[in-house]
Structures are given as structure tokens and as C-alpha cells.
Amino acid sequence: MPFSNKRNSRDDKSRYPRKSTSNFSNARGSKFRSQETDDKDKRRSNTNSSKIDERRKGPGAKSDRDCSYKRDGQRPPYKSERRTFGNKPYDPSKKRRERTEVPQKPSTDAEHKDDGLIRLNRYIANAGICSRRKADELIEAGVVSVNGEVITELGSKVDPAKDEVRYNGERLRREKMVYVLLNKPKDYLTTTDDPQERRTVMQLVAKATRERIYPVGRLDRNTTGLLLLTNDGGLAERLSHPRNNIAKIYNIELDKNLTQGDLNKITFGLELEDGFVKPDAVSYVQGASKREIGIQIHSGKNRIVRRIFEHLGYDVIKLDRVVYANLTKKDLPRGRWRYLEEKEIIQLKHFIK
To answer: Which residues are catalytic?
Structure first.
């Protein structure tokens, strides 16, 4: 049986049926009342109500003035006219208490203190001796001293501008910071060393500097495009951390045309085996076939771009990173490298703050 929109229908289970708004009587068999009958009923009801009021009046009864708004349908007295406020006398001159803000405790986290100190293992790594992990082993072995005092405690910090650090009696000096941008070609591994002696990106930048630099992030062997190499460990760590949302733009060529439906699925996000992923932007490359796609993403998960399209049944033929943070491939041929300009370094450091 369909639902009824009438409140007084037989199917309505409401406990309180709607009152009729008509001037006519709804009693069965009754005739329409005349205006004369209505006037008699009004006079009778007014007489009865006046008698009831006289019986109810007493020493503590309210006056007609106080209750007139109830009979005449008027609004009750405004709040400011009342003489009580709850159980207490109402004082209109008293202002409402304002909420006071609780002062926050100053942060004591050591990470927020910019005192210019760095860890000793990082200082040794920046001097080109070894990695940070190997530097910890040297510190524990007791072959590192700071201002003539042997340091064996891990986590110790030094001031690069004032402290004198020595390794086996030889004074260490911090390397100058080097920033190299490489347009990586295909069939090169993004690693500093390969046990199988395959070609690595380090061979392409071997003549760039004498300092020990290493790649920031990774690109697959068959992935081409921008790759940053540096010895600035702090910058490399911030660029690699997911919370900084470093944007990367890729040009992709698929084995077949990407349907509009699959493009919409990628746009709204996909649930992969390691979690949900949603690109910042994805679209067809303007002026090209529907096999060529541009995608912007900040996720740093392993092979994330390839896995997005493989999840929908596509094979990635070419994958090229054309933008990394604020860096582009302009005037940088495939397989070539260049130093970052000073303004690019400043913008890059400011970009991730």
C-alpha cells in the first residue's frame, strides 16, 4: 500500500491527528453553523472564563496585566524587563563574562631550535670521508676528536663554524655544497654502486665534482628525466620526505589509448595493494594521441606511476619526469647535467619550507 501524505487518512498511525483549520464543523450529520450561533458561543465562553478567573484569584495570583499576553496572543515581556534571571536577580548592567584564552606553553622541542649545530656523523659525511653510518662506526672506534677531545658518544653535535674536527689526527673540512641536475637516460641505475657492475648515474656525473654526491630519490632503470644529485644531506632529506609534498610531473606513453572512464578513475584515485593513491592532476597530452598522458603526483612510493596504469591493464612504454619541484628540463639534453644556479637553490630550499 503506498504511503499517504494526508495526516488524517486511515493509514496514518499518528497519535495526534491534525486539527482542522476550516471554519466548518466536521461532525457527522451536523449543519453549518450560522454567524448568530457563533456570537452566542463567544459570549458564553467569555462569561464562563471570567467566572473561573474570579474563583482562581487570590493573594498570590497574577494580575490580568501579567497574563494578558497569554490570552491575546502577544509576545511575553522582553528579557530586559524581567526582574529575575534564573534563581538570581537580573542585573542588566552586568556584562557577560568573556572567555579568556589559555596561554600556550612554549615549545621545548630541540628540533625547532636553530642553533647552527649539526650531528658529528653528518659533519664527517659532508667532509667526504664516508657515509653517516660508517661515520658512527668511526666515532665508536675512538678515532674522531673535536677540539682535541676524543668523542665516542653517538649523536654528539658540533658547530661547523667554530669546532675543529679531526679524523686520525687529520683535520676535516666541510665540503662545499654541490647541486647537480641530470637528465637521466634509459638503462642507467639510480644508485651509487652496483654489485653487478651495471651502468649507474654516477658514471654520467663523474666529472661534475670531486665532492661525494649522491642522487635524491630514485628513478627506475627504464625511466628517464630529471634527477638531482647533491651532498647537501639536509636538503635531500627534506625533498624525500612525504610530508613536504614535492610535486613531480611525468609524461607517459602507453601501449594503447587510455579510455575516458579509466582517466576518470585515476583522477578520483585508486586503491592499490599498498594503499590509496590520488594524483594531483592527470590529463591527455594536448595535441597528441590518447596514448600519451601527463600526470602530476607528489607520492614517493616505489614505481607508483607505473603501478597506477598497470592496475588498470595498461603497459607503460615510456616514462619521463619533466618537472621536479621547481626544476625543469629546459636546455638540458638527455644524458647531460648542469649545476643549479644560485637562485634555483634558494627557490628550492624555500619551496620545501
So the answer is: 220
